[in-house]
Amino acid sequence: MTIQEMKQRLEQAGNAEVSALLELYKEDPRAGVRKLAADYEKRREAEKREQERLVAMTAYERQYAFLGAVCGIDEAGRGPLAGPVAAAAVILPEGLLIPYVNDSKKLSEKRREELYDVIMEKAVSVGVGLSGPARIDEINILQATYEAMREAVSKLSVTPAVTLNDAVTIPGLQGNIRQVPIIKGDAKSLSIAAASIIAKVTRDRLMREYDRLYPQYGFAGHKGYGSAEHIRAIREHGPCPIHRRTFLKGLM
Question: What's the whole-model pTM score?
Answer without folding.
Answer: 0.90
